Amino acid sequence: MNHTQSHDLFTRALELIPGGVNSPVRAFKSVGGEPFFAQRAEGAYLQDVDGNRYIDYVGSWGPMIAGHAHPKVLAAVEKTMRDGLSFGVPNALEVTMAEAITAIVPSCEMVRMVNSGTEATLSAIRVARGATGRNRIVKFEGCYHGHGDSFLVKAGSGVMTLGLPNSPGVPSALADLTMTIAYNDFDAATKLFEEIGGEIAGLIIEPIVGNANCILPRDGYLQHLRELCTKHGALLIFDEVMTGFRVALGGAQQRYGITPDLSTFGKIIGGGMPVGAYGGRRELMAQVAPSGPIYQAGTLSGNPVAMAAGLATLELIQAPGFHEALERTTNVLCDGLEAAARDAGIAFHTTRAPGMFGLYFREGPVETFEDAKGSDSARFNRFFHAMLERGVYLAPSAFEAGFVSSAHGEAEIAATIDAARASFATL
Ligand SMILES: *Cc1c(COP(=O)(O)O)cnc(C)c1O
């Protein structure tokens, strides 16, 4: 493949944009090499500025669940934008969006639109703190909730370890309020709540961890957290920015039958436009300004064009059998990759939920962040590049989930498995 244009663009970008990118993982730092620059995308495919085409398993990091540039999404955006790009007064699409989210996700009786997943999680913990009058937040090792100060906290060993900020610029006085425990560890959560349950405003979790590859909850784990939060008067916050509308129409909370107090969304509800949302019980959300005192605002929040893209996407994923088909595609892909690795004699394991998957260069099972870290990431990096050369774009990190869209058909899956066979052979 020729990458001349991408290389030139990246050289220019490096001069002017930190690391040459506007979001760190795009820089290919963990897999090595240089990123390609996109020219256009359609269905399951991305095309770069040098004319190379890739089957895309990143899907803009989640939003493109119906495939890139879906004609119905583009038509909705085109129609809406002709009436103006932003009004600064309410518009009807915001109401339609609130109706759609609250109908699909019953735990959300009220919802507020924001512009990113980061804003959604920041706002949700503000509500948790404001509503409970408590300050501490609990999160899990390996879970990512956007780049808000309270979430950039390194996991310490031991349950009661005080959070250490893992980014300069995060005051330790704030990071100290974030407690980090191990995902899928029942006892760690019980112990923490027994010790300081009365100080915990909220526990925030990716119900399926998609930012440490793809780790599924053990049986009863989410229910255990629900019970602990209820018992100690802390709010359970499901960060469904990635899993929402993907692993089931109603997200992980529907798939596992858990009712969180607050939920955060992003990615899919924007259909590719910058959108986030947070919602929950009426009594909690009614405390948000201007109906209550907990302040949160946004000049472009509820943007009509973004709402149109999101609503068109929500309509597509409500087609009968949509998520079942997504699950089948994910399984065929993962089974095929595992078979190809087995034939090549390579230690390899996949985890999957409908529309998302994790790849590990180790034997299974993978149920904890420690398990995920046990994957041979040097091997993943070689695999990543071998696949890229064969026209398959995987997430450029051994610790990011991959995504399948409804545009990934049998041909794309078969081509991906063929590419994997050839790539495994080079390892
Ligand atoms: C992507 C993501 C976020 C952050 O969303 P942005 O739109 O990138 O700010 C938060 N939580 C989870 C689980 C995510 O996957």
Describe the structure in your own words.
With about 425 residues, this protein is α/β, with parallel strands linked by helices. The protein folds into two domains: about 5-70 and about 320-425, Aspartate Aminotransferase, domain 1; about 70-315, 3-Layer(aba) Sandwich (Aspartate Aminotransferase, domain 2). Helices cover about 40% and strands about 15% of the residues. The chain is built from 14 helices and 16 strands. The protein has helices at about 5-15, 70-80, 90-105, 115-130, 170-175, 185-195, 220-230, 250-255, 280-285, 305-315, 320-345, 370-375, 375-390, 410-425, and strands at about 40, 45-50, 55, 110-115, 135-140, 155, 165, 180, 200-205, 235-240, 260-265, 275-280, 350-355, 355-360, 390-395, 400-405. The strands form four sheets. A seven-stranded mixed sheet has the order 4-12-11-10-9-5-8, sandwiched between helices. It has a four-stranded mixed sheet with strand order 1-2-3-15. α2 runs antiparallel to α10 (about 305-315), α3 (about 90-105) runs parallel beside α10 (about 305-315) and α11 (about 320-345) runs parallel beside α14 (about 410-425). The protein is globular and about 55 Å long. Bound molecules: pyridoxal-5'-phosphate. Pyridoxal-5'-phosphate binds near residues 145 and 242.
